[in-house]
Amino acid sequence: MIIKKMHEKGVRSEHAYMAAMASIGFSVVAWMGSLKMEPGTGLARADRWGIFVGEWAPTFFGLGLALSHYEQHDGTLTADVHEFRQTQKAS
Question: Do 31 and 46 touch, CB atoms closer than 8 A?
Answer without folding.
Answer: yes
